[in-house]
Amino acid sequence: MVSLCHQVGAETQRERDTGQAPPTHRLRVWWARRPLTASRAAILASLSSPDLSPDAFLRQLGIEQRVVDIGGDVWILGKDLIGRIRRDENSAEVLPVDAFVLRRFEREQSRRATNLEIAADLERKDPTLAGDPVLQRWKAECRPLAGQWVRNGVELRVGIRPADRDFANARIELENAHGIRTPEDKYGYGRAFAAAPVLPSRPLVVLDPAAGGGSIPFEALRLGYSIIANELNPVAATILYATLDYPARFGKSLVDQIRDFG
Question: Taking Cα atoms as reference points, which of 37, 41, 28, 40 lies closest to residue 213?
Answer without folding.
Answer: 28
